[in-house]
Structure formats: C-alpha cells, structure tokens
C-alpha cells in the first residue's frame, strides 16, 4: 500500500471568537500549516450566532473582511459539512460570536499510518485532549511543584 492510498486522521475543531469578528491571525497560521503540508483542510464553515441566539452561515466569498484570513480558504468545500453541522455548531456557541468549523486531515501522519497498516497494525482506540486542558494541568502542576518545593 503506498502513501498515496492512505489518509491521515481527520479531525474537526470549532473555534469560537468573541466580538463577532475574526482578526485573521488564526487563519494565517492555518494557511501556513496547509502550505507546509502538515494538514489538508477539507471543509471550513464560518458560523455566526446573533444576540438573539439565531445561528447563521457566513459566506466566505462575500464576508467583506468579517472573517479575516479565513476567506483565503473559501475553496475548501468537499461537502463533508452540511446544514445540520451548522445548527450543531451554533448550538454550542455563545450569542454574539463567530466560529470557524474546520475539518482537516493530519497529512503529517500519512507515512506513520501507512507503516502501521503495512505492519498489520490496527487502531483500536484514539482520543484528543484539548490544548486548554493540557495547559491548565501543566500550570497547576507547576504551581503545585513551586508550592511544595518552597520555590
């Protein structure tokens, strides 16, 4: 099996931004990850939730700067995301915010996945720990260590 026949793990993230606007910094970093071949973006959907709690889609092509650099990814539309994903994303959001719902492939993992499959490996479990959770635990451990070591 060649690497061309293998896919990396597919993830999605829903990133909520306050103030009903996006500055563009997150989008710039996402574009750099794509350009470096680390990920491949399958779909991106910008979701808004107005002050009354009503969700809506933001057209990346006609957003007039409202979505920052995410407009650069407007061609990432495979059809994996649909109206029910819009509704689910909006349901998780706070009123008066915008969010980027992104489905991406971890292309960095393709050689590893291919090697594991060729060796007879089978994924039997997986998971993801959100970055904020990891940072909170590491901060708490650092505080605990400083407290117990007298530092």
UniProtKB/TrEMBL annotation:
Record-linked InterPro entries: DUF6325
Highest rank taxon of the organism: Bacteria
Protein name: DUF1269 domain-containing protein
Organism: Kribbella steppae
